[in-house]
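re: ur question from yesterday

yeah so i grabbed the chain u mentioned. its 437 aa long if i counted rite. heres the sequnce exactly as i have it in my notes:
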Amino acid sequence: MRNWLQRTNSTFFAAYAIIAAFGAYFCMYAFRKPFSVAVFDGQAAFGDGLEYKSALVIAQVLGYALSKFIGIKVIAELRHRYRAGMFIVLILMAELALLLFALTDQWRWNIIFLFFNGLPLGLIWGIVFSYLEGRRFTEILGAGLSASFILSSGVVKSTGKWLMQDWGISEFWMPFATGALFFLPLLFFIYLLEQIPPPSALDIELRTKREPMGRRERLAFFRSFAFGLILLIIFYTMLTAFRDFRDNFAAEIWQALGYGDAPAIFTLSEAPVAVFVLLMMGSTMLIRDNRRAFMAYLWLLLAGALLVGGATWLFQSGFLDGAIWMVLAGLGLYMAYVPVNSILFDRMIAAYRYQSNAGYLIYVADAFGYLGSVAILFYKDFGHTGLSWLGFFSMAAYALAATGLLTLLASLGYFRRKFNAAAAFNTVKAEGAGRSV
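ran it thru and got these C-alpha cells back, copy pasting raw so excuse formatting
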C-alpha cells in the first residue's frame, strides 16, 4: 500500500492520511475522556474543599502534563521505526490503568490510576502528527487530525453516557468499557498510519526537511525565537486550561444550562465546530507563502480568543441561548487551539527555513498548557469554592480573551520584526555576494 500511496495523486493521499490520523487519534480519546461524563455525585470530597471528580481530573491532567514534558525529548528525538510499537504499548498502559481504577474499591486510592492513565496518553499526539508534518498540504492533514479531538471528545462522552444509562454499567467501570470498545478499531488505524510514506522531495523543498532534534539543537532553536515563543506559550497555557475545563466539566455546564438528560448534546454541539475548523484550516493551505500563512494564523488565534469573550458577553446579556453560546465558545476556542496544536509551528519552521520538527515546539507549549490546566482546577476548588461551574467557565472565557489580546498583539509585532530583520540580512548578504563577483 505504501508504494501505491507514493504514486497516487495528492487528493487520494491526503484523504487516506486524514482517515488514518483522524481514526487513530479519535480512538485514543476513548481511553482518556469518557470518565469525565460521570458526575460521581455520591462520593465524598477529597481533602478540604476538593471534590472527588476534580481530584480525578487533576490526577489525570497531572499525568498528561508530565507526559508532555517527557515528550519534549521523546517526540523530538523519535525515530520513525518505533512509532507504531510505542503507540500500542502506551494505549495498553492507559487501558490497564482504567481497569485498576474500576477494580480498586477504596476511592481515595483509585485516584492515582487516573494519573497513570494520563501519563502515557500525552505522547500519542506527537506520534500521530509525526506521520503528517513537513508536507506541502500539512494544513489539511492537520485539520483532519484536529477535527478528531473536537468531535471524539463528544462522541466518547455520549458513548460513556449510553453505557451507563442503557447498559447499567457503573461510573467506575464505564471508562474501561468504553476504551475496550475502541481498541480493535485503533489497531486498524495504526496499521493505516504505518503505510504513509515519508515526505517527498517537493514537500522538503516547500516546507523544509524535518529531523530529530538533540538537546543542543532544541536549546538553540528556542533561544532564536525565545520572546515570541514565550508569548505564544503564555496564551496557549490559558487556552489549554480553558479547553480542558470545558471538556472535563461539560456535563456540569450542560446540566446548568438545562441539557443534563440529553447524551447526544455532547456530540451535536461539537460536530458543527469540527466541520467549520476543518474547512477553515484546509482553506489556509491556499496561502503558499509560509511567512504570510504564519502571520495569518496569529491573527486567527486572536480572532478565536475574542470570539470566546464576545459570545460569553452576549450570553450573559441575554442575546444568546445557552446552547448557541456553547457552540460559539467552542468555535472560538478551537479556532485558536487547533492551529497551535497542529500547523502554526509547522509553518513557522518553513517560514524561517529551520531544520527541526514541529513536534518539539508543540510539546513545549503543551507541557506548560497542561500545567495551566491543573492550576485553574486548583484555583476553582480552593479559590472560588462557592462559584458555580457555569459562573467559573464564564469568568475563564473573559480571562482567555484578555490574555489573547495582550500576548498575540505583542507576538505579531515580534515575529514581524524578526521577518524584517531576516529579510534585511539576506539583502545585505546578496549585495555583498554581488560585489565580490
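noticed a couple things. The radius of gyration is 22 Å. also DSSP finds 19 helices and no strands in the chain.
anyway ttyl
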